[in-house]
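Annex B. Sample input.
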Amino acid sequence: MSLNATAQLPPLLISPKQLASLLGGPRPLRILDATWFLQMPGAAPRNAHAEFLRGPRLPGALFWDVDAVATRGDSVRNLPHMMPSTSIFAEAARSHGISRETHVVVYDTHGIFSAPRTAFTFAAFGHPAISVLDGGLPAWIAAGESVDREALAADPTVDAAEYEAPTLRPGWVRSFEEMLHNTQLGSNAQTVLDARPKPRFDGHSPEPRPDMAAGHIPHSLSLPAPSVLESQPKQEGEGTYTRMKPQHELWKLVQSAVGEQGLEKLRHDASAKGALGVSLTCGSGMTACIVWLALQQLGIDGALYDESWAGWGRRAHAGEAPVEKSDA
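Annex B, continued. Sample output.
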């Protein structure tokens, strides 16, 4: 089956009920567990791949290693999970049995945390059908859907698919040089939203990574990723999981972050075909994609500053980039 211009594409954010209705359907479907854990100093490390193999997981799911499907090394200042090259991405898609016709659904075990990063990657490479499972594995379980609880010794094997190296969509990933230039444009600058917690944005709490300045990119605005999510109690185990807030609440949050004039600018840019009215940043390019997913629910396209503060903060610490702090 091939997708064409008239084919109805699935929504970017999909509910457990919607996904369940697609299982066994005519469109090729691949479900990916894109769970990733932020390893904090002093905390017990967690291995997302090992937890995937141990289960539970969605039926037929494969594991997508966010840190492995990435560009690594000196060319990206040894920063984590940087956008993969077209060849790395295409090879990962092929090995996961994904073709251009495949509807790819990504989820994580947090609810919504790391899955949007993988969805952004597919979207940035122009993959036609990509969805994030709203609420992830916990929401799937809460909805009463079946899960695979069998412990696996190794990843499931699938037949490789054909996937030609794609082209990265223009403007979807911002470089340091572009972001630095943007700080000098005054009223003509593009809006920049920072998804880190507000105390880190303000520069009032220490950075968790070494050799990094505190504060934010000059003229950027704060929209913490957790603010666009709501918590729900888990059906299995203790704790909560996250899912996306309703659209009307997202509008209020964005307006609160950018102001009325800023909101009108975003609306104007969103109405202009192909315009990306905002750049998104966070600690390492992960939670910025949660805000990207939220803005998509409002019809607003956003670009990703891939280095995020892991890059800018180190540059600022070395005196290579400007930094601002909020008043106490």
